[in-house]
């Protein structure tokens, strides 16, 4: 599995695999991340898994760039030759309840119409697929989930909204996500999830993390409100 390693700023090293994102590739990256954390301990200030990358942020007074680069190259080759076996990669799916209704989903009717299907068909397709968490970013707790059924592929809004409510379930291109907090956003909103996905007072602070399997479960208005959802 070919890869490149290079600097990402003054105190970071990035490994990039030269192949399309996939659950298997993400699991390799997670295994490498766990190995780096166990090896370098406090000499690493952070580590981030992307779609096909791992970035290690190191403490410059504790580690030298060449030292990190050499370790990363040798360990990446070793892990690529083996299968990821860490237990966390085999976790049960996270099930998120979703209220699919125009009252909380301003794009639901438009998306269904654009795709030439009924709302019920859209809901069935979106909730039938288990999604893989490929990366986090954009906002704290925001997790990029894929891959959408090709029949649900749709473009982002031409003009992003200035305010998207926390819990908005949205789709764009081949991905879906839940906005963990109120923020601007350009994805098309097709539902709302009443579950709090990011909470600084909780442990862990984020409900979703890279490598998770996620399923959406359609719920009615009464259940949505009873779980804390707002209309």
Explain what the structure shows.
With 231 residues, the chain is of the alpha+beta class. The chain folds into two domains: 3-89, Gyrase A, domain 2 (2-Layer Sandwich), CATH 3.30.1360; 91-226, Cyclophilin-like (Cyclophilin, Beta Barrel), CATH 2.40.100.10. It contains five helices and 13 strands. A four-stranded antiparallel beta sheet has the order 1-2-4-3, covered by helices on one side. Helix 1 crosses helix 2 (65-80). 32% of the residues are buried. The mean pLDDT is 93.
Write the layout of secondary structure elements.
Blueprint: E1 3-7, E2 12-17, H1 23-40, E3 44-49, E4 53-58, H2 65-80, E5 94-98, H3 108-114, H4 119-128, E6 131-136, E7 143-146, E8 161-164, E9 168-172, E10 175-178, E11 183-185, E12 188-192, E13 213-218, H5 221-226
Parallel strand pairs: 5-13
Antiparallel strand pairs: 1-2, 2-4, 3-4, 6-7, 6-13, 8-11, 9-10, 9-12
Helix pairs in contact: 1-2
Give a brief description.
With 231 residues, this protein is α+β, with helices and mostly antiparallel strands. It has helices at residues 23-40, 65-80, 108-114, 119-128, 221-226, and strands at 3-7, 12-17, 44-49, 53-58, 94-98, 131-136, 143-146, 161-164, 168-172, 175-178, 183-185, 188-192, 213-218.
How is the largest sheet built, in terms of strand order? Answer: 1-2-4-3
Distance between the termini: 48 Å
Evaluate the radius of gyration: 19 Å
The chain-level structural class is alpha+beta
Into which percent range does the helicity of residues fall?
10-25%
Uncertain parts: none
> How many domains is the backbone divided into?
2
């Amino acid at each position: 599995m070919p890869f490149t390693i290079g600097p990402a700023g003054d105190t970071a090293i990035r490994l990039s695999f030269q192949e399309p994102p996939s659950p298997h590739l993400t699991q390799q990256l997670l295994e490498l991340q766990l190995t780096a954390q166990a090896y370098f301990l406090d000499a690493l200030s952070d580590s981030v898994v992307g779609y096909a990358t791992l970035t290690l942020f190191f403490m410059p007074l504790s580690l030298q760039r060449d030292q990190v680069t050499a370790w990363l190259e040798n360990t990446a080759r070793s892990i690529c030759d083996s299968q990821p076996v860490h237990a966390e990669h085999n976790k049960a799916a996270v099930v998120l309840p979703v209220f699919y209704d125009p009252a909380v989903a301003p794009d639901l009717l438009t998306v269904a119409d654009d795709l030439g299907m009924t709302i019920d068909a859209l809901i069935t397709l979106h909730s039938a697929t288990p999604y893989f968490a490929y990366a986090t970013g954009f906002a704290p707790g925001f997790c990029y989930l894929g891959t959408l059924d090709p029949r649900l592929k749709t473009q982002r809004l031409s003009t992003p909204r200035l305010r998207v409510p926390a819990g908005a379930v949205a789709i764009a291109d081949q991905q879906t996500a839940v906005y963990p907090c109120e923020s601007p956003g350009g994805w098309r909103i097709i539902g709302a999830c009443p579950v709090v996905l990011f909470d600084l007072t909780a442990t862990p602070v984020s409900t979703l993390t890279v490598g998770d399997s996620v399923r959406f479960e359609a719920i009615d208005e009464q259940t949505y409100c009873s779980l804390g959802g707002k209309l």
